[in-house]
Amino acid sequence: MDQAPGSPQTPAAGNGTPGCYRHPDRATGISCVRCERPICPECMVSAAVGFQCPDCVRGGSGSARTPHASAPRTIAGGTIARDPSLVTKILIGINLAIWLTALAAGRPLVDALDLVGQAFDPATGELVGVAQGEWYRLLTAMFLQEQVLHIAFNMLSLWWLGPALESALGRVRFIALYLLSGLGGSALSYLLAAQNQPSLGASGAVFGLLGATAVLMRRMNADMRPVVILLVLNLIITFGWSNIAWQAHVGGLVVGAAVAYGMVHAPRERRALVQRATCLAVLLAIVAVVWVRTLQLTG
Length: 299
Hints:
By secondary structure, the protein is mostly helical.
């Protein structure tokens, strides 16, 4: 979110994510529990714990189920989708549509939807902002961009990180991760930024996906060096560029990592309960931050 003016041996699948060992062009966040080779939804076979690749199943442990015995699940317990990047595409489409709408409508729409804590609006002679009850700005600012480079960088990052996470978590969990990360970024920006400083952008949510990617790769015992390098570079840019709302980036990163940890480390027998509790706890923390800041600004 920017401040408004004013197995490692498998080839990568084109976006830095491992590709299936049988279909290298298909990005996947899931690996075989026996040989640890990356496998796509078409190749994975549900086992007692996790998934196995067809080669290990033919190897004869007897612990894997046939693909038709039960619906395969992602590492987080989500349903395997035929198109593992559908939600990512929809999110990109929403961001692009709002960007084009903002270009056509001009500054009034941006001013009505961006994130601002509390500011004086000379057009109406009244105070506006989240502190004045416009809580929707915490959400709308996540989908609002202005400059071409701003929307281009955020959408390329979303396309690079989204499909692998969507494939590994499942659609519903991925949506929860994205929205909570974006709201976490908005909440920390609201808490720490100047009350009259507007900000906007999807980068809080994108940083959440970056944090979730690190957690997922660690869970899968994958090579962490690429994601660590990417994270360090992004943090250098975040704190080294004066026109970037670093609070949103840090908030999104922390929330994304926390939500992803709860999703991929939840015990199998209580997976749904732990995942829902994690998301609820994060949401309540966000609400608490917004409530405290609102009390500060309204006295």
